[in-house]
TrEMBL record, chain A:
Residues in coiled coil: 154-181
Record's subcellular location: Nucleus
Alphabetized Pfam families for the sequence: Med7
Function summary: Component of the Mediator complex, a coactivator involved in the regulated transcription of nearly all RNA polymerase II-dependent genes. Mediator functions as a bridge to convey information from gene-specific regulatory proteins to the basal RNA polymerase II transcription machinery.
Lineage, highest ranks first: Eukaryota, Fungi, Dikarya, Ascomycota, Saccharomycotina
SUPFAM superfamilies the UniProt entry points to: Mediator hinge subcomplex-like
Organism of derivation: Wickerhamiella sorbophila
Protein name (database record): Mediator of RNA polymerase II transcription subunit 7
GO terms for cellular component: core mediator complex; mediator complex
UniProtKB/TrEMBL annotation, chain B:
Protein name as it appears in the record: Mediator of RNA polymerase II transcription subunit 21
GO BP term, pick one: regulation of transcription by RNA polymerase II
Location(s), subcellular: Nucleus
GO cellular component: a single term: mediator complex
Main subcellular location of this protein, as a coarse class: nucleus
C-alpha cells in the first residue's frame, strides 16, 4: 500500500505561487530581478551547453536530425543534392535492397541458420537509412503542405467574395426598384431624420446603375 | 489521412512486420524431411501442414510482400513537391502570403458594402413606416 501511495507525488509546493496577481506582476517585471514569490514564475534561460539532461536522458539543445554518420550508422544512399533530385531513385534502390536482403535471409535460414545475425543487421541498417532519408525530407514536405493550404484558402476566399458580390448586387437592385415604385418617398421632407443622411441616401440611390 | 511521408514510413514498418510473420509462419508450419533411411522427426508443439497447403500459403505471403513493395513505390512516386527546390518553395510562399492579404482586403470591402446596403434597407424601412403613420394620422384628422 505504501508503494501505491508514492506513485503519484503531491504537486510541488510552489504551485500555490501561480496566482493571477503574481502572474500579472511577473509579466510586468521588465527584466528586474524577481523577488522570492515570483522566482518560479519567470522561465529560466535556455541551456547554453550543446546537450542537457531531462527525464533521465540526455538531449540536444538544438533540435536537429542527427546525420547517420554521427549516430554511428553507415550511410548507404547518395546525398540528396540541392533539389532533392536523388530522393526518389535512392529510396527505390533501398527498397530493392531490402527485398533482396530478405530473400537472402530466408535462404540463409534454410541452409545455415546460425549465420542469420549478420543478415538481420544488414536489414536493420537498410531500414534505418530509409527512415532517415524520409525524415530528411520532412521540412520540404511541410513547406509543400503550407503552399497547398494557402492556395486552398485563397480559392475559398475568392469564392466567398464572388458570392457576396452577387448577393450585394441583388440587394442593391431591389432597393433601387423599391425606391422607384415609391416616388413619394423622395418627395417628402424628412422630419426628425438628419438631412445629411437622407441626402446621402439619395446620392447613393442616384449612383446605382 | 496522414501525410505521404508518414504513410511511407508506416508502409516500411508493415513490410518488416510481414518479413517477421513470414519467417515465423515458415518456422511453425514446415514439414519434417527425414534424413536418409530414418524416421522423420516429430514435435508435438509444431503444426506441420501438408506440402500443398504450405506452398500455397508461401505463395500468398510472397504475393502480399510484392504488393506492399509496389504500394511503397507508388507512394515514393507521389511524394509532394519532389521537383521543387527550397528556394522556389519559399518564393511561392511569399507570393501566396501577399495574395492572401489582398484577398482578405477584398473580402473586407465586400463585407463593408454589405453593411452599407443593410443601412440603406434600415433607412428605407424607417422611412416607409413614417409615411404610413403620417398617412394614418392625416386620415384620422
Amino acid at each position: 500500500m505504501s508503494n501505491l501511495a508514492t506513485v503519484f507525488p503531491p504537486p510541488p509546493f510552489y504551485y500555490e505561487l501561480f496566482t493571477e496577481a503574481n502572474w500579472e506582476r511577473a509579466q510586468n517585471l521588465n527584466g528586474q530581478a524577481p523577488d522570492e514569490e515570483l522566482e518560479y514564475l519567470v522561465p529560466p534561460p535556455p541551456p547554453e551547453t550543446p546537450t542537457y539532461r531531462g527525464f533521465g536522458s540526455i538531449w540536444n539543445t538544438e533540435e536537429k536530425l542527427v546525420p547517420l554518420k554521427e549516430a554511428g550508422v553507415e550511410q548507404l544512399y547518395e546525398d540528396l543534392g540541392p533539389n532533392n533530385e536523388n530522393l526518389v531513385p535512392e529510396l527505390k534502390k533501398l527498397l530493392k535492397s531490402v527485398l533482396v536482403n530478405f530473400v537472402t535471409l530466408v535462404g540463409i535460414m534454410s541452409i545455415n541458420p546460425e549465420q542469420f545475425p549478420a543478415k538481420v543487421d544488414d536489414l536493420r541498417v537498410l531500414f534505418i537509412n530509409i527512415h532517415h532519408l524520409l525524415n530528411l525530407y520532412r521540412p520540404h514536405q511541410s513547406r509543400e503542405s503550407l503552399v497547398l493550404l494557402m492556395t486552398e484558402q485563397i480559392a475559398a476566399r475568392r469564392q466567398e467574395i464572388v458570392e457576396m458580390k452577387a448577393s450585394n448586387q441583388e440587394i442593391e437592385q431591389r432597393i433601387k426598384t423599391l425606391v422607384e415604385h415609391l416616388p413619394n418617398l423622395t418627395q417628402m421632407e424628412p422630419t426628425d431624420k438628419p438631412e445629411s443622411e437622407w441626402g446621402q441616401f439619395d446620392l447613393e440611390v442616384d449612383k446605382l446603375p | 489521412m496522414s501525410d505521404r511521408l508518414s504513410q511511407l514510413q508506416t508502409c516500411f514498418d508493415q513490410l518488416v512486420t510481414q518479413f517477421f510473420s513470414s519467417l515465423n509462419y515458415i518456422n511453425q508450419h514446415h514439414e519434417f524431411v527425414p534424413a536418409d533411411g530414418q524416421q522423420p522427426v516429430s514435435d508435438t508443439a509444431h503444426q506441420a501442414l501438408p506440402k500443398q497447403q504450405f506452398t500455397k500459403d508461401l505463395e500468398e505471403l510472397a504475393k502480399d510482400m510484392a504488393m506492399k513493395a509496389k504500394q511503397i513505390e507508388v507512394l515514393i512516386d507521389s511524394l509532394p513537391g519532389i521537383d521543387t527546390s527550397e528556394k522556389l518553395q519559399m518564393e511561392s510562399l511569399a507570393s501566396l502570403e501577399e495574395e492572401l492579404l489582398q484577398v482578405h482586403q477584398e473580402r473586407q470591402e465586400a463585407i463593408d458594402e454589405r453593411r452599407r446596403l443593410l443601412g440603406l434597407c434600415d433607412d428605407l424601412i424607417l422611412r416607409i413606416t413614417k409615411d404610413k403613420v403620417e398617412l394614418e394620422l392625416d386620415e384620422n384628422a
